[in-house]
Each structure stands twice: as C-alpha cells, then as structure tokens.
Amino acid sequence: MTTPVLHASTHKGYPAWAPPLPAVAVGQQGWHLMQPDWPLPCAVLKASALQHNLAWMQQLVAQAGVELAPHGKTTLSPELFRAQLAAGAWGITVASIGQLALAAESGAARAVIANQVLLTHDLEWLTRLLVQYPGLQAPFLIDSLQQLQAIERFAAQHPCTPQGFDVLLELGLSGGRTGCRDDAEALELARAVRASTAVRLVGLECYEGLWATGDTQADTALVETLLRRVHELAARCDAENLFQGSEILLTAGGSAVFDLVATALRGAADQPLILSRPVRGLLRSGCYLTHDHGTYKRLGTLVNQRLAQHGLNGRPWGCGSGLEAALQIWAAVQSCPESGLAILNAGKRDLSYDMGLPTPIAWCPATATEAADVSPVPAHWRITALNDQHAYLSTMPVEGMAGGAQLQVGDRVVLGISHPCTTFDKWRWMPLVNDGLQVTGAITTRF
Fold first, then answer.
1. 289 with 70: CB under 8 angstroms?
2. Distance of CA 80 to CAs 75, 103, 131, 259, Å?
3. What is the CATH number of domain 66-290?
4. Domain-by-domain residue ranges, the chain?
5. How high is the pLDDT of residue 399?
6. DSSP assignment of 337-402, as one string?
7. Could you say which of 305, 378, 379, 414 would form a disulfide bridge with 362 (CB–CB 3.0 to 4.6 Å)?
C-alpha cells in the first residue's frame, strides 16, 4: 500500500512548521497537543479509548457467539482497519468496491459489501480484485431479479469471471432502503440465484439501524421480528439446498442496538438456529470504535443498561462502563463579540452535524501547556449553531447555575461530536494522543 506523506497543504490540521512525514513517523516527533504552536482546529483520537473499545466489542461478540465485521465506511482508515483486524475482527464491511480495495490493501482477507453491486464498472473492478487477492471473500447484496439479470449479462460477456460472485440475499423493511420487502418474493429470488451460474448464494443480510428509536421495548421487537424473518428464510433456503457456500453467513447490525442484534443473530438461547451446514453470524457495527458524545452515547447508555440487566443470550456479562468516546475536535476561541457568546474556529467543514450539534466537553486557557490544565466545561455551555468554519458557543449562565469560567480570545475548547462517520470524512489525518496529550501516532483516511 502506498503510504501518503502528511503535509500542511494537503492534510488539514497538520502543523505547517513540521516536515512532511508518513503517518508511521508522527509518534516519534515528540509533539504535544498543548504546545502553543499546535494548529487548530484539529481532530484528535484518544489512544486509550480506542484500545478499550476494540477489546470491549470483541469481548461482546465472543460472549454472544457471533463475529465482528465492522463497517469500514465509518473511518476509511487503513491504520484503524488493521487495528480492528488485529483485535480479532472476522473482516471489514464496506459499501463500495473502492472501499473493498482499501480493505484488501489493508490486509482484510474477508469483507462484506453491504450494498447492491450491478454496474459493469464495479463488477469489472471486483473481478480484478478477486484475481489480485487470491482467496479474498467478498460477498455483496442482492435484492431483485433485475440486479441478477444485470450480473448475468456481465458474466456472459466476461468469461474470465470466477466461479460466480458470492451474494447475500437482503431482506428489507417497508419504507426503508434496500432489501426484499416480501419474504415469498425473497425465496423466489433465492431460487433464481441458485439456478444462475453467475452468482452463488452464501447467506442472508438485513439492516435494522435506521429504525432504532432508543425505546428498548420497541427496538427489541423490531430486531427480533426482523431476525425471525431472516431465520425463517434461511431455514427455507437450507431445506431447498439453495445455499452454496461451505457455511451460511447471516449478517446484520448497525451501531445503535448492536447488543440486541448480537443476541438475536444466532437465534434465542433456548431455540438456536440449526441448519445443515455451519452458520456464522456477523455483526457489522462500525461507530463503536470511536463512539461519540451524542447519539451513540445516548443509545450506548441503553445498551449498557440492557447488558447489565440481561447479559447476552441470557448469560450475565460484566460490560463495565461500556464504550468510550475517543474522537474530539479541538478548536480555538477566535472572537467574543458579545457577553455570553464565544465564536470557535471549527464548523461544518470540520465536524458532524447531521445527527446533532457538537457538545463542548472541556476547555483550557490560551496559556495552558499541560493536560492537567484542561478542565470540564460548565454544564450550561452549549453549541447553538454552526457555519462552515465557525461554531457559536453560548456561555450565558442559566437560572440556577453559576456562571463559571469566562472565555477569552485564544482559549481552547474541546468538542465532542455526534455521529463519527460524518466527522471522519472531513479529515485526511488525525493524531493519536495519550492521556497526557502527547502525540503518540497518527491515522490517515482515504475518503
């Protein structure tokens, strides 16, 4: 894999005073996030939280009896892909052939393409990747006869296509994104796939994340109903010998209710799914790696409560404090134009806002030089709006709360984000820092 060289002109947040360096050399430079000439805004990853989250999620899937194929679109970082694989991930989930290429370059021998593939360009590229990486396992989703026909037309014109593309038949929910809505039609499609020489049916897929509400009772019913459909279809396909792989892959799971999915993937504890060949459950959560201070913190609190009360598959599991937020945006106060308002030099170009505004979590004065100088923000501080390059931080005291610190121009404010996916795509590199805020490494992204 070609390693990019970090440079201030191409990598936002990289120090202009630093020489161009590959990411692997950053940790040896002795840099510190608190040094006065550090560029802001800057997206930062806490190394200790990353390591905690990697181990925590692997422990969860092991307890549940499934495996992890984390969605790579969250970070699109080869360094983080390798960390997830090294921690025990079965493979990487991707949403496009380009993302598959990055996953394969990063060392993934297995991937789930959690999307429909049908364009000639993409099928040609997938064919090349399967030749370039012998043994690469990369099934993609199928949900219509029209898609199957497009693949068969491609295969008829490309005799060098391998034994047939591996596919996962997708079940969907009414009003949702992709996937077969009707289970009888899904079975008919599975039969057509089995009769085709262009594809091989190796499993089933579904996605529940868009419907998660944060209501445990409703979310549990949603997941159990959807996975019951998957299990019933799997049993029908197995009875008709429609599966063609050595094992059957069943995959689901966003980052909202992953504990419920992990429990339901293999069936109830007293009624596990048993088919004529081995079944491998794959959880596809991606945002667990960095977690956040917004949407996933709120949903994660419910995950922790469920795990503490019910464990996994009816077995207790000491989940501790759960996942930890690893991703932060450091910004500077560039103006205090009126009482109770500070304008920060980070905005929509720098952090996510599609699932909620950022949360101020810490601050330090402009003269601070040590991690010990960073303090939690008063509880009433709020980001009220974002522009492309600016954040509006209200520090106006509210009734019943003390005013707290008064920000000055040049002070630094640490922001927690909501939804890591749409923060990662705004940065081409991020420093890794230890708990003392020393820069110990770096990751790159390939959006």
1. yes
2. 7, 10, 25, 22
3. 3.20.20.10
4. 36-44+327-444, 66-290
5. 64
6. EETTEEEES--TTTS--BTB--EEEEEE-TT--SGGG-EEPPTT-EEEEE-SS-EEEE----TTS-
7. 414
Q: What was the pLDDT predicted at 192?
A: 98
**pLDDT in the model for residue 313:** 74
What parts of the chain have a pLDDT lower than 70? 1, 161, 268-270, 399-404
Q: What pLDDT score does 315 carry?
A: 76
pLDDT of residue 138: 98
Task: Please indicate, yes or no, whether the overall pTM of this predicted structure exceeds 0.90.
Answer: yes
Give residue 120's identity as a one-letter amino acid code: T
- Please check whether residue 313 is in contact with residue 61, taking contact to mean a CB–CB distance below 8 angstroms: no
| Gap between the Cα atoms of 348 and 423, Å rounded | 9
- Residue-wise burial string across 83-122, b where 16 or more C-beta atoms lie within 10 A, e elsewhere: bbbebebbbbbbebbebbbbbbbbebbbbbbbbbbbeeeb
Q: What pLDDT shows up at residue 402? A: 58
Pairwise CA distance, residues 350 & 325, whole Å = 17
CA distance between the termini of the chain = 16
**Cα angle vertex 267, ends 263, 269, to 5°?**
75
- What pLDDT, on a 0 to 100 scale, did the predictor assign at position 310? 84
Q: What is the pLDDT of residue 2?
A: 73
- pLDDT at res. 373: 96
| CATH no., domain 36-44+327-444 | 2.40.37.20
Strand partners, 93: 71, 112
Cα four-point dihedral sign 434, 436, 440, 442: positive
For residue 185 the two structure tokens come to 């039609």
Q: Do residues 83 and 99 lie in contact, with contact meaning Cβ atoms separated by under 8 Å?
A: no
Q: Which two tokens stand for residue 85?
A: 């694989």
- Tokens representing 194 are 């089995």
Helix (H, G, I), strand (E, B) or coil at 211: helix
Q: What is the pLDDT of residue 269?
A: 63
286 phi and psi, to 5 degrees? -120, -35
> How many Å apart are CA 94 and CA 138, to the nearest integer?
9
**Same topology between domain 36-44+327-444 and domain 66-290:** no
